[in-house]
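wait is this the right file?? whatever heres the structure
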């Protein structure tokens, strides 16, 4: 055999070998890794749902290629994965809710003991010698309130909240225990519902709100559900922009939260000679929990509460008949905190009439302290703040209504 024939024979042998190798590809073991690798490729692209849809639309073309059938099945399974992922994303997407304050027909008038607070002038803030005083936030200046108002004698209870057919996530349950873990916007919805129930004009515009009242905080045995505020990770009820239909607060005829000035005026109840209506407090570190004799008969605080919230009206009221203005739970008020600046920050020390504070800020005031606070902080002049979306197991409220003359 000459050299040409030898080369030709070798070429034929190579072609036959290549043909035999390619033919063996039809005998794929079902446990072969190749389809899994294809699935992983699609899983990596699972964020692109259009790609998965395109693969499904080409099912007829792929059906003609039996070798690819497993890949198509795997793609279908990945489509479900993408759908589930989309549902998870939607879970954290705010859901418009423009009906939060609408009447359902299941409401009943809550049994609330309303007190009338006559208009008047008082000194807002506290003397520099007060124990545990906020040196800047408690600056003293005269305030005049030109409108009398009605205020609840107690912090709003869970039974009173539920009377308006609204859910809540209060950590400690009980009909006579203050409703808590309700944020500023949820409280506004409750106030509006009571206004509507009594045919009064609502004080708040809740037309640009999202999610549902009473949901959002995860509770477990470790009490991680006692507070939450992040609307990006929890479906908490919240509203965008200002919700005030009456920027001056005082002219609204319906139910609302008190302003910081109204709350302090009612909490002080004309007492000027001592730090509280139970007597004077002594100074102590803010991390301490010492007995404060002046508080024992009038307030629940760290030294006597046992670390728990208590039913309302178990302690002595102040001279104007209000219970638990100090301790038990913080109370929301309708004044933005402005970083702790005094209400008279624009004109320090100047007398103010019907003050409302700055127009808007995310932090809104809460007053009165709570059952775990150090005693020296339980003064009617102490001011704290929290995000408007925040829900915390130690924060409740006490509603008011202006007496329109």
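ok assuming it is, sequence goes like this
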């Amino acid at each position: 055999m000459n050299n040409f024939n030898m080369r030709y024979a070798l070429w034929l042998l190579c072609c036959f070998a290549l043909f035999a190798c390619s033919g063996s590809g039809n005998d794929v073991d079902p446990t072969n890794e190749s389809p899994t690798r294809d699935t992983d490729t699609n899983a990596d692209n699972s964020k692109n749902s259009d790609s998965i849809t395109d693969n499904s639309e080409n099912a007829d073309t792929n059906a003609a290629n039996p070798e690819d059938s497993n890949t198509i099945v795997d793609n279908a399974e990945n489509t479900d994965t993408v759908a589930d992922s989309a549902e998870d994303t939607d879970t954290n997407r705010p859901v418009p809710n423009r009906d939060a304050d609408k009447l359902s027909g299941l409401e009943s008038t809550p049994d609330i003991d309303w007190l009338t607070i006559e208009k008047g002038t008082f000194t807002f803030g506290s003397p520099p010698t007060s124990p545990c005083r906020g040196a800047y936030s408690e600056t003293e200046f005269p305030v005049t309130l030109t409108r009398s108002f009605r205020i609840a004698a107690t912090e709003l209870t869970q039974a009173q909240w539920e009377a308006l057919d609204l859910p809540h996530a209060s950590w400690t349950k009980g009909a006579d225990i203050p409703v808590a873990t309700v944020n500023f916007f949820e409280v506004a919805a409750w106030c509006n519902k009571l206004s509507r129930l009594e045919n009064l004009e609502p004080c708040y515009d809740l037309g640009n709100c999202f999610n549902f009242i009473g949901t959002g905080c995860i509770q477990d045995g470790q009490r991680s559900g006692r507070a939450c505020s992040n609307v990006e990770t929890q479906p908490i009820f919240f509203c965008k922009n200002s919700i005030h239909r009456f920027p001056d607060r005082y002219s609204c005829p319906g139910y609302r939260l008190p302003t910081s000035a109204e709350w302090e005026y009612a909490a002080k109840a004309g007492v000027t000679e001592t730090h509280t209506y139970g007597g004077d407090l002594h100074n102590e570190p803010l991390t301490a929990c010492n007995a404060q004799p002046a508080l024992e008969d009038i307030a629940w605080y760290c030294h006597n509460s046992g670390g728990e919230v208590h039913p309302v009206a178990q302690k002595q009221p102040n001279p104007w008949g209000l219970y638990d203005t100090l301790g038990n739970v913080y109370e929301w008020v309708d004044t933005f905190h402005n970083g702790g600046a005094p209400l008279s920050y624009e004109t320090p020390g100047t007398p103010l009439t019907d003050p409302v504070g700055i127009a808007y800020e995310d932090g809104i005031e809460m007053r009165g302290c709570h059952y775990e606070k150090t005693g020296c902080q339980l003064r009617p002049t102490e001011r704290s703040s929290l995000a408007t979306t925040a829900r915390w197991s130690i924060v409740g409220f006490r509603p008011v209504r202006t007496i329109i003359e």
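The longest strand covers residues 330-336. so i think its the right one actually
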